[in-house]
Amino acid sequence: MSLDTRPLLLQQRLPETTHIRRRPAPRVNPNYPRRMRLADTLQVLCIVSVALAVALFLSSGGAARFGTLADTLTSIGIVTGLVGTDLLLVMLLLAARLPAIDRAFGHDSAMALHQSLGKPALYLLFAHAVFLIIGYALSSGVNVFAETWSMLTGMPDMLLAFIALGLLVVVVVTSLVIVRHRLPYEVWHIVHLLSYVAVLAALPHMLTAGTVLVAGSPQWYYWLALYVGVAGSVVVYRVVLPIVRSLRSRLVVAGVDREAPGVVSIRLSGRKLHHLQASAGQFFIWRFWTPGQWWQAHPFSLSAAPAHNSLRVTVRALGDGSTDLASVPVGTRVSFEGPYGLFTDRARTSPRIVLVAAGIGVAPIRALLETATFAPGQATVLLRSHSVADSYLVEEIAELCRLRGAEFRIITGTRAPGAHSWLPGDAVNARISLNTLVPLLSESDVYICGPRRWTDEVVRDARSAGLPTQQIHFERFDW
Amino acid sequence: MRKRAAAAAATASLSVLAIGWLVGTPAIASLQDTLGGTATDATVSAAASAPVASTPAAAATATATAAPAATATPTPTVTPAAAGITGTFTGSVVATRFGNMQVSVTLADGTITDVTALQLTDKDSRSVQISNRAAPVLKAEVLKAQSAAVANVSGATYTTQGYLTSLQAALDAAGF
Question: What was the ipTM of the complex prediction?
Answer without folding.
Answer: 0.78
